[in-house]
Design a protein that fits this description.
The chain has seven helices and five strands. The protein has 180 residues and is of the alpha/beta class. The chain has one domain: P-loop containing nucleotide triphosphate hydrolases (Rossmann fold, 3-Layer(aba) Sandwich), CATH 3.40.50.300.
Length: 180
């Protein structure tokens, strides 16, 4: 299998529980089965390692996204398909990251707050509503919906496979995937 001549960063953004990680895992598996070099930068894993010590203030969230963007850029410039799964709630910092990464696809993983709360496997919304978590995106901190995302996945209306297929089709359409 021939690798693409340039890597790309696929940035999945949306509320906690929208389905970013699930879609990311599906896309990762499909790409690996086809022989592509893929790396996943999951927001939770990055926070525990690369961004340990950062809080959830607007400034810390922006720094978290800058760091993820920097690593994504390093990987993508070495012909890796980088899948980022991060809430990344602020439009301005997502745009800053987009400007710093030559090949960038924004994916808005769209699910209503109500749906995300129903899916809350980690119990984060419950803790935030009880006042145990401050600055929780979607509740007491804003989530700014992307204005020009290349892909929108409506996870309360689509299966995981349908949403992931949209991402894979966009990668193919833009020339990042090759037919076998």
């Amino acid at each position: 299998m021939r690798q693409p001549e340039s890597g790309v960063t696929v940035w999945l953004t949306g509320l906690s529980g929208a389905g970013k990680t699930t879609i990311c895992q599906f896309v990762e598996n499909k790409l690996r089965m086809q022989g592509y070099r893929v790396e996943v930068l999951d927001g939770d894993a990055v926070r525990q390692n690369l961004c340990k010590g950062l809080g959830f203030s607007k400034e810390d969230r922006e720094e978290n996204i800058r760091r993820i963007g920097f690593v994504a850029h390093l990987l993508a410039r070495n012909n890796v398909i980088v899948l980022v799964s991060a809430i990344s709630p602020y439009r301005e910092i997502r745009e800053e990251v987009r400007q710093n990464i030559p090949h960038f696809i924004e994916v808005y993983v769209n699910a209503s707050l109500e749906v995300c709360e129903q899916r809350d496997v980690k119990g984060l919304y419950k803790k935030a509503r009880a006042g145990k978590i401050k600055h929780f995106t979607g509740l007491d901190d804003p989530y700014e919906i992307p204005l020009f995302a290349e892909v929108e996945c409506k996870t309360n209306q689509e299966s995981v496979a349908e949403s992931a297929t949209k991402v894979l089709e966009k990668l193919g359409e833009l020339g990042y995937l090759y037919s076998c």
